[in-house]
Amino acid sequence: MDLVDSEYPIVGAPMAGGPTTVALAAAVRSAGGFPLLAAGYKTAEALHDELRQARGIGGAFGVNLFVPGSMPVDEAAFRTYADELAPEAASHGLELDPRPVLDDDDQWPAKVAVLLADPVPVVSLTFGLPAARDLAALRRAGSRVLATVTTAAEARAAADAGVDALVVQAPAAGGHSGTFDPYRPLPPVHGAGALRAADLVREISAAADLPMVATGGVADARDAAELLHAGAAAVAVGTLLLRTDESGASQTHKDALADPAFTETAITHAFTGRPARGLRNGFIERHESTAPFGYPALHHLTRPLRQAAAKAGDPDRLHLWAGTGFRAARTGPAADVIRKLAAGL
Ligand SMILES: Cc1cc2nc3c(=O)[nH]c(=O)nc-3n(C[C@H](O)[C@H](O)[C@H](O)COP(=O)(O)O)c2cc1C
Which residues, at least 6 apart from 234, have a Cβ–Cβ distance to it below 8 Å? Predict the structure, then answer.
C-alpha cells in the first residue's frame, strides 16, 4: 500500500494553532495531495468535531498529534522571564500569569481514543515517540503511524518502536521542530555545518529501512523533486500553504510573510519553550537569549500576548512561524499550490 493515499506524493503538512483548517485539507485533497489535519493544542472534543467535518471532504486524510512530554521549567527563571515580558504585555493591556502550566497531556488519552473509535489511514506524530501501547493500538485500528524525526538516531529509535514510516523534518522547516531533544541546538541551514533536507533524507534512509515523507524548506517543485530523488516517498509542504485562501493563519501572520521588512527566519524557543522556526522579529531579537526552555509552560505564558498581537496587527510580538522558503508563499487557492508542485515533478 502507498504511504499516502493520494494522486500525487505531496502532503499538506499539519499546522496547529489555526493555519490547518478543514477547508485547507479539502483544497489539498481536491488537487490530488494528501492532507494532514493538526490536532495539536486541540481538545479531544474539538478533534472529534473536526473529524466529523473532514469526513465530508470526499477523500482520505490523516491526523497529526503532539506526543505528550512536558519539559521541566526552572520556576525562578520562568518568573524572571514573565517579568521581562511584562512591559510587552502591558503594551497590549495584558498581565501575564507568572505561574507555569507544566502539563498539557491530559487530552492525549482521549485524543487517541477518538482516533481508535474513528480511525484515519495516517496518524503522524511530532515531539517524540508515544507509549508502546498507544502506538500498537493506533496500528491495530488500521492507521499507518508516522513519526517525525530530525536525526538518524531518532529515525532508528522510531523504527525500533515499530512505526510504519517517518516524517523526515529538516532544520529549514517552519514551525516547531519535532526534535526528540528540544535542548539540542538545530543544525544551521546555511554556511558551515549546514544540513540540507536532501542530505538528511539520504542519511536517514541509510539508518532506517522505512518509507519517508520529507519536509522542510520546500519552495518549489524543484525542491520537492530533489527530496523524492533523494529517496523520499512523498514531500510535505507547510509554509507554502500559509497565505492561501483556505489557510486559517491570522492576517497578521499572512501579511508578515510577504512584508519586505522581514528578511530571514530564525530558530527560537522564546515563544513556546521549544525550538521553532519563524520570521525573525523584534520579540525574538529581544528575548531569545534570555528565555528559559520549557514547553508548554512558555507556550501558555506568552499565548495571551500572541493572541492580542495577532488581533491588533502587531507582527513584532507574534510567533510568525515560517520555513526558509517563505518568500515563495503566495495568496490564492491552496489547490493551485499543490497543482503547481505536482506539475513540476
Ligand atoms: C504554522 C505552522 C504550524 C505547524 N504545526 C505543526 C504541527 O501541529 N504538527 C507538526 O507535526 N508539524 C507542524 N509544523 C511543521 C510542519 O508540519 C512541517 O514540518 C513544516 O511546515 C515543513 O517545512 P516548511 O514550512 O518549510 O514547508 C508546523 C509548521 C508551521 C509553519
Answer: 3, 4, 9, 10, 11, 34, 212, 213, 214, 228
pLDDT at residue 141 in the model: 98
Q: What's the mean per-residue pLDDT of the chain?
A: 97
Ligand 1 centre to CA of 14 (Å) is: 6
Overall pTM surpassing 0.85 (yes/no): yes
Integer Cα distance of 88 and 154 in angstroms: 37
pLDDT tens digits, 12-54: 999 999 999 999 999 999 999 999 999 999 999 999 999 999 9
Write down the CATH number for the domain with range 10-68+105-245+329-343: 3.20.20.70
C-alpha span between 293 and 94 (Å, rounded)? 23
Average pLDDT over residues 128-135: 98
| d(CA 174, ligand 1 centre) in Å | 5
d(CA 66, CA 150): 15
Q: Are 322 and 278 in contact (CB under 8 A)?
A: yes
Across the strands, what pairs with 90?
A: none
State the pLDDT at residue 1: 45
Residue with CA at minimum distance from ligand 1 atom 29: 175
Give me the pLDDT at residue 4, please: 85
Which residue, 19, 60, 55, 63, is CA-closest to 39? 63
Distance (Å, rounded) from C-alpha 345 to C-alpha 335? 16
SS3 65: strand
Residue 38 in contact with ligand 1 by CB distance below 6 A: yes
Grid coordinates in use for 300? 501558555
In this prediction, residue 104 carries a pLDDT of 74
**Amino acid identity of 10?**
I
Instruction: Report the nearest atom of ligand 1 relative to the CA of 66.
Output: 9
Cell matching residue 99:
505561574
Answer yes or no: are the C-beta atoms of 47 and 63 closer than 8 Å. Answer: yes
User: What residue segments make up the domains of the chain, in order of their start?
Assistant: 10-68+105-245+329-343, 72-103+263-319
- Residue 168 Cα to ligand 1 middle (Å): 12
Cα distances (angstroms) measured from residue 181 to each of 22, 107, 186, 334: 31, 22, 10, 33
